[in-house]
Structures are given as structure tokens and as C-alpha cells.
Design brief:
The protein has helices at 19-26, 30-46, 66-76, 87-97, 111-116, 129-143, 153-170, 178-185, 198-208, 217-231, 246-253, 255-262, 291-296, 315-329, 338-361; strands at 51-57, 82-85, 103-104, 119-122, 125-128, 150-151, 189-190, 214-215, 237-243, 272-277, 308-312. With 362 residues, it is of the alpha/beta class. Helix 3 (66-76) packs parallel to helix 8 and helix 6 (129-143) packs across helix 9 (198-208). The longest helix is centred in the last third of the chain and has 24 residues, at 338-361.
């Protein structure tokens, strides 16, 4: 019996080669092959018309500059429809919109000396502590509201994005940050743990003074579920791209159990699943949970497991490669502008849930 699959025989590398050819011809086995599968799945199936794409972010991606270099171009190309992120990624993204500079360093430095000099380290990234104080000041001024409105985190981040965009213009910055780009493209950004970042701490400081907005976490749960519910109506499909894991991963995936288990609406799960992680599945950590395990929760359509890829590598390696690949290989898509549609989508979900409840009572 002859083995199936292409013969592994990449040609000798030469001086110049594009990312697409590098991925397709030289990422032949192990996690390189999984990364190739992820790139091709994105370009050939996920980024097609009719597929709603949700992306989750964890880990310190924005301090490494990956928002402006990779995520923003994906948003502008119509490749990201909504986001779930740690608050820390959004907070550190603001540094760039405010014109602050972060610098390359090394992981093995004297942190006591850094502290004495007023410097802050994120692994091999360093910056002046004044960056934190200036960003905190921006957050408090942006969110100081005596009316204390009740907001979803999408509304909170839309407000921050609007003011970040204004700050970029005032400083003559041509490269927008993630929040500013999402604001312009009406891409809603949610955070699964609103208090777990400096943005949340600044909100808490305002709350001590009876100021600032209140966060409606139930609105986040329902809005994200409404986006996914609408995405899978008719011939539509839902895709998730998970960079890292943690709480943003679960929040992105729990949309389906919320629709099926809690609201009782018929669903089969997300259609496409791509995760980049360095976590093992056997240690009990959420980040290592496999797509097949997610099937048992109703998070992933069991019929679509061939369209599920897990690549065990560093997101800071995979994200630039995937972004460069799809920007070359996939056609741009019209912006979905889901932020503007939140209330409409939420009303559709509410009506569907009410119909289901009435039918169950009958």
C-alpha cells in the first residue's frame, strides 16, 4: 500500500522568497505544517464572503508591536469582524496611539536596577514608567463621566478607540493602534475580564469618586452570542481564530453553549476553529483544550472537525506569518461593521429565545 499525501521534497532555498511560497513549500511537517494548514484554511475557507470571523487575543501581543503591524492590516482588509481581548492588550495598545515608545531589550536583565531607573519590563521589552502614568491619565480623562452610563465593553472600547484616534491625529501619527483602527472599522472589541487590566483599575479608581461608566458583563455575553447566532443563519458560517488561550478563548467559544444550552436554540457550533497555543491539553489548562474536546460542549460543529487546526507555537511567531500569508493570498472583504448592528442582532436573539421559551411552555 502506497502512502498518501504529497512527497516531501522542498527545493533548496534561495536568497529571495515570499511568505506565501515559504509557507506552502517549506512548512512541511510538525507544527510548521500545522501553521501551513492554518494559513491555508484562513485564506481558502475562513476569509470568504458569508463567514463571520471572531479573533481572541491573550498574552502580551500589543507591546511587541503586533497590533499596528499585523492586526490593524487584517482589520482594514475586512478579515476580522469582532475581537475578544485581554484588557492588558488594549491598555498597552494605547501607548502607541499616545506616541510613547517601547524598546527592545533582553530577558536577562537586573530588574532591581530597572526599578531604580524607573523602567518597566515585559520579558524582553522595556519602557519608562512614565508611559504607564501617561496612559493611566488618558484612561481616566477618557472615562470620567458623572452620568455613570451602563456600557458593554464593546461600547467602552469604542469610546477609547474614538479618543485614541483623536490623540493620533493630534500627534501626527500615521499608524493607528488597534483600538483606533477598530473604532474606524466598527469592529466591536470585548474583554472577558473587565477588571483585570490597568483600564479596569482606572475605572475602579473613578468609581471610588462616584465617576465613570459601569460595565454590563451580561451585555457582552449576549452581544457576542447574538453575533454568532446571526452568523450561522441560512448559509452563513462562524469562524474563530484564537491567539493564545485563557479567558478570551473561552469567552469567544462559550457563545455556542450560551445559544444552545442556556437559550435552547438549535445550533451545531462554530464551523472553523484555528488556535495558536503553547499549552498542552493534559494539564487541565483551558488554553490546551482541543477542538475535539470543544465538540462535547457544543462549541465546535463535529462535522467540521477537519476544518479545525491547532498549532503549538508562539503567537508572536505565528501571527505575522499568518497575517502576511492571507494579505497576499486572500481577497479583501467588505467591512461588516458589526458594532453598528449590535442592537439589531441582540433583538433578533431576544425574539428567537422568546419564541423558544413559548414553544417549550406550550
Amino acid at each position: 500500500m502506497k502512502p498518501k499525501g504529497p512527497v516531501i521534497s522542498p527545493p533548496p532555498l534561495r536568497g529571495r522568497i515570499g511568505v506565501r511560497r515559504l509557507v506552502e513549500d517549506y512548512f512541511t511537517a510538525y507544527n510548521a505544517a500545522r501553521l501551513q494548514e492554518a494559513c491555508r484554511l484562513l485564506a481558502e475557507k475562513v476569509l470568504r464572503p458569508g463567514v463571520t470571523v471572531g479573533v481572541s487575543l491573550s498574552g502580551a501581543l500589543t507591546p511587541a508591536g503586533l497590533a499596528g503591524s499585523a492586526l490593524v492590516p487584517l482589520i482594514r482588509a475586512g478579515f476580522i469582524d469582532y475581537l475578544v481581548s485581554t484588557g492588558a492588550n488594549l491598555y498597552h495598545d494605547l501607548h502607541y496611539s499616545l506616541g510613547y515608545r517601547l524598546h527592545r531589550s533582553r530577558p536577562r536583565v537586573d530588574d532591581t536596577e530597572l526599578r531604580r531607573r524607573g523602567l518597566v519590563r515585559i520579558y524582553d521589552i522595556v519602557f519608562d514608567s512614565a508611559v504607564l502614568f501617561g496612559t493611566d491619565r488618558f484612561c481616566r480623562e477618557a472615562l470620567d463621566d458623572p452620568a455613570r452610563p451602563l456600557l458593554s465593553t464593546a461600547e467602552l472600547h469604542h469610546r477609547l478607540g474614538q479618543l485614541a484616534r483623536q490623540a493620533e491625529r493630534e500627534r501626527g501619527l500615521r499608524r493607528p493602534g488597534l483600538l483606533a483602527a477598530a473604532y474606524r472599522a466598527d469592529v466591536p472589541i470585548y474583554t472577558s475580564s473587565p477588571g483585570d487590566s490597568a483600564i479596569g483599575m482606572n475605572l475602579a479608581a473613578l468609581a471610588l469618586q462616584g465617576q465613570g461608566p459601569l460595565i454590563d458583563v451580561s451585555a457582552d455575553v449576549n452581544e457576542t452570542a447574538a453575533i454568532v447566532y446571526q452568523a450561522t443563519r441560512g448559509r452563513g458560517k462562524s469562524a474563530v481564530l484564537i491567539l493564545g488561550g485563557g479567558s478570551p478563548k473561552n469567552f469567544l467559544l462559550q457563545t455556542e453553549p450560551h445559544i444552545q444550552e442556556i437559550l435552547g436554540l438549535g445550533e451545531r457550533g462554530h464551523d472553523y476553529f484555528i488556535q495558536v497555543t503553547d499549552a498542552r491539553p493534559d494539564t487541565g489548562g483551558l488554553s490546551g483544550a482541543t477542538p475535539s474536546e470543544a465538540v462535547s460542549w457544543g462549541k465546535i460543529d463535529p462535522a467540521r472537525l477537519p476544518d479545525a487546526v491547532v498549532c503549538y507555537t508562539d503567537s508572536t511567531i505565528a501571527l505575522p506569518i499568518m497575517a502576511a500569508y492571507v494579505l497576499e493570498a486572500a481577497r479583501r472583504r467588505p467591512l461588516r461593521r458589526l458594532y453598528r448592528q449590535r442592537r439589531q442582532l441582540l433583538e433578533k436573539l431576544r425574539r428567537a429565545a422568546a419564541r423558544r421559551q413559548r414553544s417549550g411552555e406550550g
